[in-house]
Structure formats: structure tokens, C-alpha cells
Design brief:
mainly beta, 6 helices, 12% helix, globular
């Protein structure tokens, strides 16, 4: 392992042991809807299977890689949605790892004929650990591969995590809010030490409208505008963007940052400009996005971020007919 890799890994581990953590995020957060908000569970035609992969800052040794897998289903007889979600994060050359599995439940209330409200709950079980077998430290080289002194006293931690959310939608708009880590579980690796995960609050919404006039009226093209604001601990972030849908293709452009706010170093709080391209058929959706880094950690140094999403939906004939009036119109990627 190169010296730069040692330095990067030690920085990531130091942050993990001493600082409040932030959750992983996806550029295509609407392609991971139940990760964004458990109230999205059950908002597909009937059944939905999705997978997401994100590689953030690949040019930096020990950067972040996130995987997300989810299944959700609508149960029309009880007006409910259920979901299962599994997430895995790796950082610091894969040494710092976090894996969670959760169950979700939402209940659908018809406010009007075509306007619905869904409150939701989520319970997750998480394992947080450091894999020292992937790392080599200076004291191990001196002592011919013996266990590093940094490993002493560090133990994997497991905890229950509770989240909630709510969603309102109609055929043309949606708005939602979610609160993750409501119980602020302790994720410290050291027994007797407290390092609670700060609550993450997300507010999101958007509007979808059909293009009119000229050839667009025949091609059934749509424009979707959307936003997502997140706040966790001392950090906050705004994603603002739009999609152009011309089936089967979707093109999107997103900005992530807060132009009116600067960080502690006096720099404008901006993160990335994201380019998204997607393909969708009646059942399958595949998306790719690339983040162009706008912060001081420029794209030439960081490598930006690559993300791939996949979704597959299926339903019986009766559920498909019912779904025409209750499918959330939000962006697909």
C-alpha cells in the first residue's frame, strides 16, 4: 500500500472514530425511493425491485462505495405498502464498513379521488465495523506483522435504528418529509464511549407536466422539476434539478449545494453538478449519472462520482388498472 493510501485511510478512520457521521447519499435518489423516504414503500404499480451502486471520488485511495438493494409491494386490500431495504457502505480502502437491513410499512389514505397521503415507519438493524485485515500500519511493519496497537479496544457495534416519513402526491405533484435515526443510536467502536448518529431530516418534492405544442404533443414528452433538502448534524445540502422525459429516454441535470451559504473556510457551499441519463421500458428502468465536482476537491483530483441504478416493476392486470390513478409522478432517476 502506497504512502498516500495510508494517509487517506488514516484520515477516514480518524473521522470514523471521532466525528459525527453522515449517511451515504445517491445522486439518483428517486431511483432509490425507499432509501430516501420509507413512505415510498408501495408506491409502484404493485411490486418493485431496485438496486443502486455509487462510487464517490474514485481517484482518491480509500474513497466511498455504497450499495443499496430494496423490494417493496403495494397491498390494495389493506391500503398499505411494505418494503425491505439493505444498504452497505465501504470507506478507507474498504476497511470501514456499515451494513444495515430494514423493514418498512406505509399506509395509504385517500384525501380526495386522486390525492393520497402516506405516513410510514421503518426499523433497521445495523452492523458497523473496521476490517483491520485490509490495512497495514507502521507499527505492524516494525513488529513483523503483529496486531496493530490501534486495533486494541475497538469492537464492532450493532444497533437498532428507527425512521419515519410522510408523503402526499397527486398525478402531477408530490411532497414528502423523512426523519432517519430518530432514536439517535450509539455507533461508537469503544465500549462505554458515546457517539450518537445525528438525526437526518429530508424534505423533497416536485412537479411533473406534459410538454404542449408542436411535435411534443404527439411524442408525449414531459418535464419534471424536483428538489431535495437534507439536514444532518452540522451539515445541510440542497439538490435542485430537472428531467426531460422523451420515452424511452430521460435526461437530467442536477445541482447540489447551497449558493447562499459558505462553509467554515469561507468557500461557497457547493458540491457537484450531476448529469443523468436513463432508459425505461414498461417494467425496467436503468440509469447512469456522473457528478462533476464543484468544490475545492475538484473533479481532476477526486474523479467525481459514478452511479448506476436499476429498477424492475411488475403487477397483475387488476393492480395495473388501479395503479393509473395512484402512481407517484416523481422523477424515475
Amino acid at each position: 500500500m502506497k504512502l498516500s493510501q495510508h494517509i487517506a485511510t488514516l484520515c477516514f478512520l480518524a473521522l470514523a472514530f471521532t466525528a459525527s457521521s453522515q449517511d451515504g447519499h445517491f445522486t439518483q435518489f428517486y431511483a432509490a425511493p425507499t432509501y430516501l423516504n420509507p413512505a415510498f414503500a408501495g408506491t409502484s404499480v404493485e411490486s418493485r425491485l431496485s438496486a443502486n451502486y455509487r462510487n464517490q471520488w474514485p481517484a482518491i485511495p480509500g474513497a466511498f462505495v455504497t450499495y443499496n438493494f430494496a423490494y417493496d409491494r403495494y397491498l390494495p386490500r389493506i391500503h398499505s405498502g411494505i418494503g425491505i431495504i439493505a444498504t452497505h457502505d465501504k470507506a478507507g480502502a474498504g476497511a470501514l464498513r456499515s451494513s444495515s437491513v430494514g423493514a418498512q410499512y406505509s399506509y395509504e389514505v385517500a384525501i380526495r379521488r386522486d390525492v393520497f397521503f402516506l405516513p410510514a415507519l421503518q426499523m433497521s438493524y445495523t452492523n458497523h465495523s473496521v476490517n483491520f485485515s485490509d490495512l497495514v500500519f507502521g507499527d505492524q511493519l516494525i513488529r513483523d506483522g503483529a496486531e496493530t496497537s490501534l486495533e486494541a479496544g475497538i469492537e464492532p457495534v450493532n444497533y437498532l435504528d428507527f425512521s419515519s416519513g410522510a408523503l402526499v402526491f397527486s398525478p402531477s405533484y408530490w411532497a414528502g418529509v423523512s426523519i432517519h435515526h430518530m432514536n439517535q443510536p450509539n455507533q461508537s467502536f469503544y465500549p462505554g464511549h458515546i457517539a450518537r448518529i445525528p438525526r437526518k431530516i429530508s424534505a423533497h418534492g416536485g412537479y411533473r407536466f406534459k410538454m404542449k405544442g408542436g411535435a411534443y404533443s404527439k411524442s408525449k414528452s414531459y418535464v419534471v422539476t424536483a428538489a431535495n433538502y437534507k439536514h444532518q448534524g452540522d451539515f445541510d445540502q440542497l439538490d435542485l434539478g430537472a428531467y426531460y422525459e422523451l420515452n424511452p429516454l430521460t435526461l437530467g441535470l442536477w445541482y447540489r449545494g447551497l449558493l447562499l451559504k459558505s462553509n467554515d473556510y469561507g468557500y461557497i457551499n457547493q458540491d457537484a453538478l450531476s448529469l443523468i441519463v436513463g432508459f425505461q421500458s414498461e417494467q425496467v428502468k436503468i440509469g447512469y449519472s456522473f457528478d462533476v465536482t464543484l468544490s475545492q476537491l475538484n473533479v481532476g483530483f477526486s474523479g467525481g462520482a459514478h452511479e448506476i441504478s436499476f429498477s424492475y416493476e411488475w403487477a397483475g392486470k387488476q393492480s395495473r388498472r388501479m395503479a393509473r390513478k395512484r402512481i407517484v409522478p416523481c422523477a424515475k432517476f
